[in-house]
Write a structure and sequence with these properties.
392 residues, alpha/beta, Aspartate Aminotransferase, domain 1, three-stranded antiparallel sheet, 13 helices, globular, binds pyridoxal-5'-phosphate
């Protein structure tokens, strides 16, 4: 029997950089007096129709394997929703799979389409998994800076300069985690033209779609010429507060989804039957079930933004959606991790350093409104007191 050693490990997987959040958790240890502006877990519970469907599923005791790609009725429901609300034509048989969250969808799509040596354009700061999954596939992430001075809107000259003969795709989320921005319809149209001009696939993560607060959401995959090159990821984790149920979906070009399905079968077999029942109920939720959730987060985000914006020597791009703002505190500390730890230790408020979203997040903190209204207010107040003290 050989001793386990590094040569037995796939180097692409070994090279995946993991979060450095341990330093934050360590600073939090033993403290029950902290106000948490870092959490990604919302303070509300799932809508009642979803809970009811789950109870029914449990009572019936039906827990067999399902169709590998999700209940037929669920895929049909997603297809109908995409057609009606997202203006996306995705056939339930060959263009959609139900996944164990967007996270699993991203992996199976990226692993199915990227080859070692391919380059993947990631506007950055970015959601960490886009970078990690690219590396897991042996492909090369190419980060293109989103400038705060340009309201985190992509600069098309910079994007074009990042394209090479090896470029395969561009990956982004809209609304954006961690930046809080929602790109305009014009920006999405320009991105669609850019993808077509350079023959790129587009992977768009719309997990925060229901939290678009600055106008009507637009799916880039619905734009002319985009259906055959776009994978659209969506889910129920944020919209219906079903994070722990691990259920989402991906819609993509059937010719490519054919291969994605094989990998999905290998890694998941099928999504959880209870979560699928919950997702079906989620699709049937009405605006009366969902508007209170959206309004709750919209109000907290607006409050957070207004208070942060008023801080001396702190800049903050106005959020258009999601649960986040991404203010710049570099006037007070050039290192985001050091500043985040100081905030825990000296101000009793937890935030995430912008560097958790790539090195281009240096100088920024990501603040979220997932905690209760009272905790968010307390966190802001502590931040204000601390900043005013530093500012003198
Ligand atoms: C941008 C983004 N995409 C995907 C996910 C994960 O989604 P899911 O729970 O559907 O796997 C998250 C979770 O925070 C996220 O912020």
């Amino acid at each position: 029997m050989h001793q386990a050693n590094a040569s037995m490990i796939n180097p692409d997987v070994a090279a995946i950089p993991m979060s450095k959040r341990e330093a934050i958790w360590k600073a939090m240890e033993g403290r029950n007096d902290l106000a948490n502006l870092a959490s990604g877990n919302p303070d509300m519970v799932m809508p009642e129709p979803v809970r009811k469907a789950m109870r029914k599923q449990v009572d019936e005791g039906y827990a067999r394997y399902t169709d590998y790609y999700g209940f037929k009725e669920l895929r049909e429901g997603i297809s109908g929703m995409l057609a009606q609300d997202w203006s996306l034509q995705a056939n339930s048989e060959d263009a959609i799979i139900v996944t164990c969250g967007v996270q699993q969808g991203l992996y199976v799509v990226m692993r199915s389409i990227f080859k070692p040596g391919d380059e993947v354009i990631i506007p950055s700061p970015h959601y960490g998994t886009y970078y990690q999954n690219t590396l897991a596939c042996g492909a090369k992430p190419v980060l293109v800076p989103l400038a705060e001075s340009g309201n985190f809107v992509p600069d098309f000259e910079r994007l074009a300069a990042a394209v090479s003969a090896k470029s395969r795709a561009i990956v982004f989320c809209n609304p954006n985690n961690p930046l809080g921005v929602v790109w305009s319809h014009q920006t999405l149209k320009s991105l669609a033209e850019f993808a077509q001009a350079h023959d790129l696939l587009v992977l768009v993560d719309e997990i925060y779609r229901d939290y678009t607060f600055n106008g009507e959401p637009l799916s880039i995959g619905s734009l002319p010429g985009m259906a055959q090159r776009t994978f659209t990821f969506g889910g129920f984790s944020k919209s219906h507060l079903m994070m722990g149920l691990r259920i989402g979906f991906v819609a993509g070009p059937p010719a490519l989804m054919h291969t994605v399905k094989k990998l999905h079968y290998c890694v998941a077999l099928c999504p959880s039957v209870i979560s699928q029942a919950a997702a079906q109920a989620a699709l049937a939720c009405t605006d009366a079930d969902l508007a209170p959730i959206r309004n709750h987060f919209a109000a907290k985000l607006d409050h957070l933004y207004r208070r942060i914006k008023a801080l001396p020597s702190v800049s903050c791009v106005a959020p258009g959606g999601s649960f986040y703002v991404f203010p710049n505190f570099s006037r007070y500390d050039s290192d985001a991790m050091t500043f985040a730890i100081r905030l825990i230790e000296e101000a009793g408020v937890v935030t995430l350093p912008g560097t958790e979203f790539g090195k281009l997040g240096q100088g920024h903190l990501r603040l979220s409104v997932c905690a209760t209204e009272a905790e968010v207010s307390e966190g802001i107040q502590r931040l204000e007191t601390f900043i005013h003290k530093l500012h003198g």
